[in-house]
Amino acid sequence: MALTKADLAERLFEELGLNKREAKELVEMFFEEVRLALESGHQVKLSGFGNFDLRDKNQRPGRNPKTGEEIPITARRVVTFRPGQKLKSRVEAYAGSEQ
Amino acid sequence: MELAVKSLLEQMSQSLATGQRIEIRGFGSFSLHYRPPRVGRNPKTGEAVALSSKYVPHFKPGKEMRERVNESRATTPIKSADNGN
């Protein structure tokens, strides 16, 4: 079971005493804020978690893996996530096999 | 507000630290990728060091995120200058 916006809001409700509607809105706002920043060309740094970076990719040759047909992959802008040191070391320690 | 953001980031970190994926529709999903054990080298001494297997966080942008960011390309330059791109 994956962590969802509903789970995040529930915890804000429990921990911070926000009402459920406020908690839901806050979660929504948080992710929207990150998207807006990226959309306006800004890198987003979340201390202790990681950075969301932007990269412009040039057009490159690609292939339809089913048919083998050559089709160009158009130029595009993509978001990449670089986990911070703190998150990396917390995750590294995870020994389980469940995903 | 600050406390709320802190709580969100802590919840997300904790989730990944216990092997639980995160799925935020329209934003993206975070999961763990397995890295097999390997023999690394100390770049200073050249000495071989055994590195055990580990997990690394991975982010896959969601559809809305991909589309909005890509659409901004035509009109908006990338402003961050310090990420080595």
UniProtKB/TrEMBL annotation, chain A:
<keyword id="KW-0805">Transcription regulation</keyword>
<dbReference type="GO" id="GO:0003677">
    <property type="term" value="F:DNA binding"/>
</dbReference>
<protein>
    <recommendedName>
        <fullName>Integration host factor subunit alpha</fullName>
    </recommendedName>
</protein>
<dbReference type="GO" id="GO:0009893">
    <property type="term" value="P:positive regulation of metabolic process"/>
</dbReference>
<keyword id="KW-0233">DNA recombination</keyword>
<comment type="function">
    <text>This protein is one of the two subunits of integration host factor, a specific DNA-binding protein that functions in genetic recombination as well as in transcriptional and translational control.</text>
</comment>
<keyword id="KW-0238">DNA-binding</keyword>
<dbReference type="InterPro" id="IPR010992">
    <property type="entry name" value="IHF-like_DNA-bd_dom_sf"/>
</dbReference>
<dbReference type="InterPro" id="IPR020816">
    <property type="entry name" value="Histone-like_DNA-bd_CS"/>
</dbReference>
<dbReference type="GO" id="GO:0006417">
    <property type="term" value="P:regulation of translation"/>
</dbReference>
<dbReference type="InterPro" id="IPR005684">
    <property type="entry name" value="IHF_alpha"/>
</dbReference>
<dbReference type="InterPro" id="IPR000119">
    <property type="entry name" value="Hist_DNA-bd"/>
</dbReference>
<keyword id="KW-0810">Translation regulation</keyword>
<dbReference type="Pfam" id="PF00216">
    <property type="entry name" value="Bac_DNA_binding"/>
</dbReference>
<dbReference type="GO" id="GO:0030527">
    <property type="term" value="F:structural constituent of chromatin"/>
</dbReference>
<dbReference type="GO" id="GO:0005829">
    <property type="term" value="C:cytosol"/>
</dbReference>
<dbReference type="GO" id="GO:0006355">
    <property type="term" value="P:regulation of DNA-templated transcription"/>
</dbReference>
<comment type="similarity">
    <text>Belongs to the bacterial histone-like protein family.</text>
</comment>
<keyword id="KW-0804">Transcription</keyword>
<comment type="subunit">
    <text>Heterodimer of an alpha and a beta chain.</text>
</comment>
<dbReference type="GO" id="GO:0006310">
    <property type="term" value="P:DNA recombination"/>
</dbReference>
